[in-house]
Each structure stands twice: as structure tokens, then as C-alpha cells.
Amino acid sequence: MLRHWHVSFLSFCFFLLFLFLFLWTPYDEISATRTFSVDLINKTCKTCSDKSTVFNYTFCSASLQEIPVSRTTNLQGLAIVAMELTLQNATHTLSVIKELRRNETWGHPFASACLRDCDVLYSDGVITLVDAVAAFLEGKYGSAGAWLTAVMDGATTCEEGFGDMEEASPLTEQNYSVFQLCDVALCIVNLLVSHA
């Protein structure tokens, strides 16, 4: 119980930081950086999609452009935004899993076992994402990348668990979003390492 409260509190802190930075930025500065930020996002997403067959350029571009442009004026800011989006999505997915688990009439016993496994994976994943952000902010890009990879593996394992049980996954959309957002963040981290 304490662990879940800790996760929720950390997610709330990141949200407050995100909101503060958005409200603090003057409107004319946002307007002035919009074109540059959109160009940076599109260029970065294109570079990443060229490096991977599973990377979704459209998903990357649309996701990152939802964020206030003042936060995306360089690769470091873009990486933090991608990790914040991943954390928000992973936290939301965890709440969906818990709601499904509370619904006792949902699914087969095998599906319940899959949901239990996904609960563990995402509970750990949210904490891992917080660690990844902290490592990135400390300049430990290798550690941040390793933890992002672990969260991607967790989303994949969650989804594949239903396939192994021949059950329809109720989390396909959520797992895909978390996987792709992790991939976006990981690619940007790797770009920063290669440019260092």
C-alpha cells in the first residue's frame, strides 16, 4: 500500500512540475519557439524511425506535439517530455489494470492471472520510470536507457502473457502506447549519448 502511495505521489509531483513550467512560460516565448520546436520534434522522430522498424513516426510526432512547445527546444527537454508522457501513460495503465482486477466478472481465471502479472510489471515499471528520469537529470544516460528498456520489456511481457494464455488482451492499446513512448525516450537518450 505504501509503495502505491509513493508511486502516486511521485507522479503527482511530476505533474505539478510540468504544470508550473507551462504556466510560467510567457505566451510570446511559446509563440516564438513553436516552429522551431515542431521542426525539432519532426526531425527527431524521423531520425528515430529511420533507425528502427518498430518505431512509429506518426505516434512519436503526435505525442510530443501535445506538450507545451517551450519544453521541447532541445533534445534534453524532448527526452524529459517523452519520459513524463511515458510515466503518465504507465500510471494510467496501472489504474486500468487495478480496475479490471476489481471487476470479478471480467474474463477467465487465466486472464486474471495475466492481469495480476501485469499489475506487478507496471507497479515496478512506474518506479523504474521515476528512476530513469532521476538518472537522466543526473546525466546518467546509460542508466536511464537501461531502465527505459526494462519498462518496454515489461509492456511487451504484459501483452504477450495474454497471447500465451490464448486470451484477448484488454490492455493492447495501453501496452502499445507505453512501449512506443519508451522507445521515443530511449531513442532520444541514445541520440544524446552519440552527440556527447
Automatic annotation (TrEMBL):
Reading the lineage from the top rank, the first entry is Eukaryota
- MF terms (GO), sorted A to Z: enzyme inhibitor activity
> What NCBIfam families does the annotation carry?
PME_inhib (TIGR01614)
Give yes or no: UniProt keyword Zinc.
Answer: no
Q: To which protein family does this belong?
A: Belongs to the PMEI family.
Q: Which Gene3D superfamilies match?
A: Invertase/pectin methylesterase inhibitor family protein (1.20.140.40)
Pinpoint the Pectinesterase inhibitor domain residues. 36-188
Q: From which residue to which does the signal peptide run?
A: 1-32
Which SMART domains does the record match to this protein?
PMEI (SM00856)
One GO location term (cellular component): extracellular region
Name of the featured protein: Pectinesterase inhibitor domain-containing protein
- The answer on whether this UniProt entry bears the keyword Transferase reads no
Coiled coil where?
none
**Entry keyword set:** Disulfide bond, Signal
